Model the fold of this input.
Amino acid sequence: MRNFDETTITTAVLERLAGARDARIKEVSEALVRHLHAFIREVRPTQKEWADGIDFLTRTGHMCDDKRQEFILLSDTLGVSMLVDAINHPMPEGATETTVLGPFFVEAAPEKPNGSDISGPMKGDPMLVTGSVSAADGRPLAGAVVDVWHSDDDGYYDVQRLEQIGDLAMRARFRTGADGRFHFWSIKPAAYPIPNDGPVGEMLAAQGRHPWRPAHVHFMISAPGFEQLVTHIFVAGDKYLDSDVVFGVKDSLIRDFERRPPGRAPDGRMMETAYFYLDYDFGLKQVASSTHPA
Done:
């Protein structure tokens, strides 16, 4: 076949995918071709616009390294990350809703004992976080691994300031006790803009959008026999809750970070200054192959 035009080229490309050996690759490739060609027919780009689009993707790739993933930012800001999350994580009653991982997770977070202060050298309003981890039916899960990380009160993560602070801070890994509970101290996070000095920032500006995320604490929780939970808890009242640049806010994940006066904190610590307090109960979804313990 040859001499393709606007109406015949899509069929020709699809026919050439018929020999794909993997059925899933064939399915995905065919869908990609159909939708991409339909997009091109709808927007009818000029040759310059198409070249500009290729340049945008090229520059997006050039911004990626071991500390920054511009393509994750692109996926997040176009709502694709949350769409993929929604498709893959339907939650039963009692299980905590999921949201995006974000670009600032670090595999090598230090494991700390419950009650630790993970703020490191960072200054800010003290914050106590307490919580529990249970199965969706309410059974407490002992030994669950709870990864936490968040920004400072200027909206920066430790990995963005390693040259100044020298080590990881405001992130750690905890394990729940026999009662399924965990707790730690840190500083209250602030709203922050996603990195917007690259192609994704240019895209947001062109679309008339801001780059801000509402203040939140990240949690990633794992336990044998249960789906890993990736979620945030957002600060109630934050002005960006209804315009989160990555579309990650869900009502069930918003909580008051209650301001408490000096005195004895819920974990028994005596506080000479006011502090903020967050408490949240997390529910995990059992994997389909896991059986309920006798």
The mean pLDDT is 95. Residues 23-43 form the longest helix (21 residues).
